[in-house]
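We emphasize that the prediction below concerns an isolated chain of 423 residues; any contacts that depend on oligomerization or on bound cofactors are therefore not represented. The input was used exactly as deposited, without trimming of termini.
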Amino acid sequence: MISRFCLYSILKNLRFADPFLVLFLLHAGFSFVTIGSALGVQHLIVGVLEFPLGMAADRWGRRRSLALCFLFYAASAVTMARLEPGQEGVLFAAVVLYAMAEALRTGSHKAIILDYLDKRGEAGRATRVIGLTRAFSKTAAAVSALGGGIFLFYSRDYSLLFWLSAGPALAGFFLMLSYPRWLDGENQRLQEQARPSGRTWKAMARALVARPGMKPLLLESAAFESQVKMILKYYVQPVLQQGLAALGIPVLGPGAIWIGSAEFASNQVGAAGALLSGRAEKVLKDRGGARRWIYLAVMVTAAGFGLAAHNRELITGIILFVILTGLQNLRRPLFVSAFNQVMDKPQRATTLSLESMARTLTVSALLPVTGFIADRYGIAPVFWLICAVLFVGGPLTWIVSGRPGAATYVTDRRPASPRKPGR
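Result of the prediction step, given as a token string:
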């Protein structure tokens, strides 16, 4: 199954258009406000739906949820490939389809992995296995970015990248159908046990948030992951485009190779960071301390991006891009492993969707604001806002973590290895 988990990570991340999405929309004549609003709607839909759909995945089948997710990914790619300048309705239709895919996906596959390890009595391998699958994710993203850059260089056609992205999504649909049925989660267990309770999704959310140690981790995710996603997914591209323009290099030309190569390098470093997360956990034995140091490093990196954007520095932007991707992927498996210590095990997909919802709604609220700032004042001030959110969110998370009952000592330390019988 580990090989299939890795194949899932590959197919999910063969998105040849992702490194060029914002540049494609700018090329099509959309403003940063329109782009931010469309992507904000996408994240809002994900934020609203992913928790109830996470509950549905836990109760009615994680495999089925993920199979349907891949179909929505393919539909979104095909819709985006047919987008013409000025067609805002088509743009919003594409982002809604993508949002449905994301809402169906978030949390479900990690829940499958954690269930699989529990079933085999290997819960202590969670950080290493998640790090391994994340390494495959980043490697696939690296290959697709470089491939996308090469295709764009020769074709000068953004739409080709979306057509190419639809194929792996369809392959992912068939992969999910090949997973064993017992990995559907609570769906299978409930056939042998009592029927699910009649609690609403709101009541379930309140119960999950009330678990010891849950609130500081949700706040940490909202403060950190949302800002990193905004940088890596939406604002690195304009920074690199500005740097290329300062050197007289067009994106639809040699610039495509530059951007594809930068994405390739950053994702390769991200893969290395994910693989090293298990070793970092073993050496440090303190997830909380490691996450806080990485948090501070990311804050400094975000400030560096602001300076690079202000000075239109291409090489500096690429270096910071690589560093930030490495830091984020070193940190994420540590966070998921800590999160696993406080979540309700039968409701893993639900709980991971709740965590994703916290950061998704934050991104949804900020994207239209950052789009307005980028249109009115330029790209650099966007990074000053991101730094401000990180600066406020970090200390606030640590304050909440330090309150009695926050149980940070439970979530930040690695669980002791179980004693073998006879010792």
